[in-house]
Amino acid sequence: MATDRMLKFVDTEKRMPDKRTVDQRRVDFDEIYQEFDAARATEQASRCSQCGVPFCQVHCPLHNNIPDWLMLTAEGRLEEAYEVASATNNFPEICGRICPQDRLCEGNCVIEKGFESVTIGSVEKYITETAFENGWVKPTVPVRERSESIGVIGGGPGGLAAADQLRKKGYQVHVYDRYDRMGGLMIYGIPNFKLEKDVVERRNALLAEGGVIYHANVEIGRDLTLAALREKHDAVLIATGVYKARDIQCPGVGLNGIYPALDYLTASNRKGLGDTVPAFDDGTLNATGKRVVVIGGGDTAMDCVRTAVRQGAVSVTCVYRRDRANMPGSQREVANAEEEGVEFQWLSAPEAFVGGDRVTGVRCQRIHLGVPDATGRQTPQVIEGSHFTIDCDMAIKALGFDPEDLPALFGEPGLMVSRWGTVRIDFRSMMTQLDGVFAAGDIVRGASLVVWAVRDGRDAAARIHDYLQAKHASVAVSAKSAA
Ligand code: FAD
Ligand code: SF4
Ligand code: SF4
Fold first, then answer.
1. Residue in 4, 10, 95, 22 with CA at minimum distance from that of residue 47
2. Residue 179's pLDDT is what?
3. Ligand 2 midpoint to CA 296 (Å)
């Protein structure tokens, strides 16, 4: 029986793919996890208990059919496993690498309590990498071409997932991005040691081979108006992400040597891609030989501290106002940072940046977590007289992102936004107040995750198809009644 191969969690331990040694990791930007080999992937997939109600699937934003692909992997039927995995996910090799699985599928795996979860993300990555190696991953060939065209603003995971889905339906899809490469934060935000850039570029190339047309270095609002795009295309999708860095209000914040996280990470990623980056080469956005303090406790902060380690910083300290249990970043990434030598100052908040012209230290205060607020999170309260200073040569602010003022940027006051600046959509049609203009990804939900952007992109593509079908049908009815 096929299921004889499953339910092995009772006597088979959870094993993640091997991690490279800390000494290796600290000196390069390669991914830190090695690949599963076939034997280990089969063994780990066979730990799944094939739950009747698979909570892993419920808590995957894409509702991936995880139990089925695990069983197919355990049975060595990898081509079928890939078909199942790719049916619900446009980028399974990317999600398998960078989803915070401890908060999503794996964190809800039924065997987690007592036996530790199935290594779902690593198996997803293994299946997809095997599919690429064997040539099973093919560019899209639509069953029929359609004449209608769609303009997608933003080539991040949201825009690209939508583009892929729309292309499968045969639409003419044009993706516009203000950057020179497609991929959004997968290229210029997330560092190589979590997601190697050739993995993203391989997907970008596949989409282009399938007929998606890229327009790089085109900023909507500067090079082309939204109105012009609406004229040109039958529908438009806004998937521009969120990029306005939150700032710290405290004395000394304007000193030299203090930078926003994304400027720092983008410079590092560009350098890794082989670009000339003057602000990196002249030592500005470069941590080599410096004492670095990073402020924040999310995934962006973790990416900054670990990038600084790899650039050869003398010391790297992360300052976060809550404790480890209450930080928004993935616990797995914190553990990786600790292994790599990052020091954490939990329950601490910056009070001032000190220095003359350049920053020489961050003066902090200790924090006590008080009573929970309306959201249920304990409120950070300053402990009076608890000041301490961390000496540094470079400080990085990683406090999260808000949307830019899109209606102003696009010159479209009719584009309605929430009080947080995210684009308002009708949640059934995914359309904004502007007819034929849809929105998806971080620009709708606020800073989130790649897997949620993929989900939104797929949903938006389906709604755009519905919209165009309905429009097509009503034109046909009018033509018939006129005749
Ligand atoms: P984006 O990826 O931001 O893409 C938007 C694209 O739109 C960009 O390419 C931008 O250039 C383009 N654009 C913007 N405005 C215009 C315009 N006017 N004209 C033309 N183009 C425009 N998520 C995870 O799941 N796992 C992680 O490990 C993880 N790590 C992260 C690390 C960092 C440092 C950051 C910042 C984020 C991380 N995230 C992670 C979050 C994840 O990257 C985002 O949630 C996801 O990329 C959002 O996708 P998106 O398509 O909505 O937007
Ligand atoms: Fe888990 Fe993410 Fe894969 Fe879903 S897409 S199964 S959440 S790793
Ligand atoms: Fe398998 Fe865990 Fe999902 Fe159950 S919850 S089907 S054990 S992966």
1. 10
2. 98
3. 25
